[in-house]
Design a protein that fits this description.
Pfam family, one (chain B): ABC_tran
Helix content of chain A: over 70%
Shape of chain A: globular
Largest sheet of chain B: 6 strands, mixed
Distance between the termini of chain A: 47 Å
GO molecular function, one term (chain B): ATP hydrolysis activity
Structural class of chain A: mainly alpha
Largest interface: A-B, 37 and 41 residues
Radius of gyration of chain A: 24 Å
Number of helices of chain B: 12
Number of helices of chain A: 13
Number of strands of chain A: 0
Family (chain B): Belongs to the ABC transporter superfamily.
Organism (chain B): Streptomyces capoamus
Structural class of chain B: alpha/beta
CATH topology of the largest domain in chain B: Rossmann fold
CATH architecture of the largest domain in chain B: 3-Layer(aba) Sandwich
Oligomer: heterodimer
Shape of chain B: elongated
Protein name (chain B): ABC transporter ATP-binding protein
């Protein structure tokens, strides 16, 4: 003891000495803020996590990089438009997300597994459900967090474009209306992509598989649907084009915005779904999002504890 | 202190013919047991229904029939309120490797409803109490099993619950780690004033730690009593002697001499090396000690050890196995 004591104090900073004494156990009599607070905390933790905040430096790289990749083309467009004193942005607000769909898919593929697969793989889920929050709270917090993260990702470049458009004195009312329409479209896109990404990730606890599966579903379905649409169009079967478009998330959003949000369609022939067909698109988007939520709830009922 | 006095004399957990049936197995079969404050051991072989019971008590899995109350709250109707006052340490690994113990426990404290500042303060306190110091800022992935178990315990205690469920907390620990964990579990009650329900399939370690032991098997209650009841009924003496030239097998010589004087002995069970050299006999009083002394002295042997062996809880299991065999014999 006599030998150890000086060595201990010598290596311990003075500030730490207070911790050497065992002050005994202190109870907690403060407030317990319950379910709603826990859900909010989980939401903010997951949202920050979707951009690598509060996580290791390594996990910040990809989301931040993708965020930059999303915003840089918008900034360049704005710079060009301002420099050439154009009266209209080269790409409309609603088109931007469709053009950048590969980046968005990559982001979903990297962050959806991060949001849910980790808790499943390391079996952290039981620790949540042994606390006041319930399955629905957990699913809602995770869903809302990923959708918000996607909304930030897809909304930020629109904001850059809008700011640039106002700076170069394009028509305020016209730009504001189109910007708002663009925001509604990316909000729908964020909900739909978050739902699909989370469902896939929640069934693939191994992170690598999750990433591959999300990319496959989002990108390959878009490729396949676009190809089928092109074939249908060249064979003079253009009536089938909108109906084929229902089968990939990207074309679903494209259809909704070209029918109701003033977007120009990327469908072959440039004609999106008509009003009636557009209603089906909206139903599909909302239905798919709701279905994803339901599947997630069911999934977490099972893994519970 | 105020909280401790309110808990004393109150039933912490009460179940009333609690049953849980799955399509093919009955996990719990009309289990009725009252558990008071203190450290309670829940003992049973794997598959005895321990984890199922904990799930029901946390309000996460509805019972097929029967009722249960935890801290006076009904598990079926007030699960969320129970989970706010109770901590749970699962048996399996449950820690993400890429965050530090501090970050992880703070997050879990907030999930229990603690405001951010309180969550940080309680995390620092709790990690210190379970014995994690500087390492708590490093990612959990690099921790030893013992340190991971401490983090798991810390997340169960961080919100200062009134009761904690510890599912096999000594699993995977070496003997030293096991002793430290058992000491910590004891302190959770004595120093922190938190009642503990700890499960284990190792009986010996629970008799040192628990005030009360509940033994279940096949979802049925085998026995529920205080540890002193379990271990005080009889005293067994363990004797080990040296060999000499006249008695090359000293143990056998002593056994025969004791038999000649009418004392029954058994060899130590459990096939451990050296077990054959230890004789067990039931002490009926002072005279048994004198008898052993005289027998060994008459034979001219050295007495290496003579110690009291407490009755082991494991004997509950041996007797239940016999009962079960009988039940099977009756066509059960």
């Amino acid at each position: 003891m006599a030998v150890e004591q000086p060595a201990y104090t010598a290596t311990t900073p003075a500030g730490d000495q207070t911790r050497i004494h065992d002050i005994g156990y202190r109870g907690y009599d403060g407030p317990r803020l319950g379910r709603a607070y826990a859900r909010r905390s989980l939401y903010s933790q997951s949202l920050r996590g979707a951009y690598g905040l509060g996580r290791s430096v390594k996990s910040k790289v990809l989301p931040m990089l993708l965020f930059a990749v999303m915003c840089v083309p918008a900034a360049i467009m704005v710079a060009v438009a301002v420099a050439t004193k154009a009266h209209e942005l080269p790409v409309s607000y609603t088109r931007y997300a469709i053009i950048m769909q590969a980046v968005i898919s990559l982001y979903v593929a990297s962050q959806a597994p991060q949001a849910v697969s980790r808790d499943l793989r390391f079996k952290t889920v039981p620790l949540y459900f042994s606390r006041p929050i319930e399955t629905a709270d957990y699913v809602r917090a995770k869903f809302a967090a990923l959708a918000s993260a996607l909304f930030v990702l897809t909304g930020a470049p629109l904001l850059v474009m809008y700011a640039g458009a106002l700076l170069s004195k394009m028509g305020f009312a016209h730009q504001t209306k189109e910007f708002a329409q663009g925001l509604v479209a990316v909000a729908l896109l964020s909900l739909l992509f978050a739902g699909i990404g989370l469902v896939i990730a929640a069934f693939t606890p191994r992170r690598g598989f999750g990433i591959a599966a999300v990319i496959a579903v989002l990108t390959i379905s878009y490729g396949a649907v676009s190809t089928l649409q092109a074939i249908a169009d060249t064979q003079g079967n253009s009536g089938a084009v909108p109906w084929i478009g229902l089968f990939s998330p990207v074309t679903l959003i494209d259809g909704v915005q070209s029918a109701f949000l003033g977007g120009s369609s990327a469908f072959p022939g440039g004609t999106g779904p008509s009003g009636g067909e557009g209603a089906v698109y909206v139903l599909f988007v909302l239905g798919l999002t709701a279905a994803c939520y339901g599947v997630l709830i069911r999934r977490y009922r099972k893994v519970g504890l | 202190m105020a909280r401790i006095t309110t808990v004393i004399g109150v039933t912490v957990i009460a179940t009333e013919s609690l049953s849980k049936r799955f399509p093919r197995v009955t996990a719990l079969d009309r289990l009725s047991v009252d558990i008071g404050p203190g450290v309670t051991g829940l003992v049973g072989a794997n598959g005895a229904g321990k984890s199922t019971l904990i799930k029901i008590l946390l309000g996460l899995s509805p019972a097929t029939e029967g009722r249960a109350r935890v801290l006076g709250l009904d598990v079926a109707a007030e699960g969320a309120a129970i989970r706010e006052r109770v901590g749970y340490m699962p048996e399996h690994d449950c820690l993400p490797p890429d965050v530090s113990a501090t970050e992880f426990v703070v997050h879990m404290a907030r999930m229990s409803g603690l405001p951010p500042a309180a969550a940080r303060e309680r995390t620092a306190d709790t990690l210190r109490h379970v014995g994690l110091y500087e390492e708590r800022y490093r990612p959990i992935g690099g921790y030893s099993t013992g340190m991971k178990q401490r983090v798991k315990l810390a997340q169960a205690l961080v919100h200062d619950p009134q009761l904690v469920f510890l599912d096999e907390p000594t699993n995977g620990l070496d003997p030293v780690g096991r002793d430290e964990m058992l000491g910590l579990i004891r302190r959770i009650h004595t120093d922190f004033g938190i009642s503990v329900l700890v499960t284990s399939h190792l009986l010996g370690e629970l008799e040192r730690t628990c005030d009360h032991v509940v033994v279940i098997d096949g979802g049925k209650l085998l026995r529920s009593s205080s540890t002193t009841d379990f271990t005080q009924t009889t005293t067994t003496l363990a004797i080990e002697v040296t060999d000499s030239d006249t008695h090359p097998d000293g143990t056998r010589a002593v056994r025969e001499a004791l038999h000649a004087r009418g004392a029954e002995t058994q060899a130590e069970a459990g096939g451990l090396p050296g077990a054959g050299h230890i004789l067990l006999l039931t002490a009926t009083g002072e005279e048994t000690y004198d008898l052993v002394r005289d027998v060994v002295a008459d034979l001219g042997l050295g007495l290496v050890r003579m110690e009291q062996r407490r009755h082991h809880i494991s004997e509950v299991f041996t007797s239940s196995d016999e009962q079960r065999k009988e039940a099977v014999g009756h066509g059960g």
